[in-house]
Description:
Layout: E1 13-17, H1 20-25, E2 33-37, E3 54-56, E4 77-79, H2 88-92, E5 97-99, H3 106-121, H4 124-130, E6 148-152, H5 156-165, E7 171-176, E8 180-182, E9 185-189, H6 193-197, E10 202-205, H7 219-224, E11 230-233, H8 242-250, E12 255-258, E13 278-280, H9 291-307, E14 315-317
Parallel strand pairs: 1-2, 1-3, 3-4, 4-5, 6-7, 6-10, 7-9, 10-11, 11-12, 12-13
Antiparallel strand pairs: 5-14, 8-9
Helix pairs in contact: 3-5
Amino acid sequence: xxxxxxxxxxxxxxxxxxxxxxxxxxxxxxxxxxxxxxxxxxxxxxxxxxxxxxxxxxxxxxxxxxxxxxxxxxxxxxxxxxxxxxxxxxxxxxxxxxxxxxxxxxxxxxxxxxxxxxxxxxxxxxxxxxxxxxxxxxxxxxxxxxxxxxxxxxxxxxxxxxxxxxxxxxxxxxxxxxxxxxxxxxxxxxxxxxxxxxxxxxxxxxxxxxxxxxxxxxxxxxxxxxxxxxxxxxxxxxxxxxxxxxxxxxxxxxxxxxxxxxxxxxxxxxxxxxxxxxxxxxxxxxxxxxxxxxxxxxxxxxxxxxxxxxxxxxxxxxxxxxxxxx
Length: 326
């Protein structure tokens, strides 16, 4: 069952929506927009594959839907429900626009990043493991206050992490693609990462995964971190060299708190699962109660923009919108 546009004009965009609940939440659609449910298996309900102009990818399993996209011969726009757009351009080509859900996950991911820091530094994960055995183990743990935190990534989520760290009395250093100044002060370039690592207690990774950032946190950067430092990753697993991180953590020299891994999920026999100083969550960053209403609001705005010929927000590949104003 499809949701009909609010006006009698013939639709000029047909969107495939990955589940009926999301489709229903969108409510009445703008004139000229039709939306049909499609779970990326077989034909869409109420449309042919060749009718589809735009798709909203499922969440969180974006990768599972990608093999279906080449079947859409008239595809013009791919809208993700994730901040990352890994692998999409390689499947659809340069002529198809790709829009991310940047901003939707910022608050939730920033919350988790701070939560992982606190849990690991204060030993909350250890206490949780001790609880079933009734073990009372009082130890002096590291505070987040007064830690020197190195934040790798200064985009939307990076800004939200920095903002949430302000009340915790940390000494924050930010690293971006290139050195520059903004309203928050100085941003260092990635070429300084290894040197900066040597003087910081916590490294937080929230940079997008690109060819330039794949393996950016390598053996040299990890080795530069002081003994006892904490590595937090809420970005993409492949930004960190997993083998090098594993060696440092299993040896006991570093600790890690990871919401993302490479590969993902980690194989059940991976040594990080059993490392006493590793805390792993199963890619929960953006998946909180804040996600639902925020993704619905973004999609409504995207549909409204496309309906009147404007470019949607968050374009990471412009496609047909290269000369269209937002």
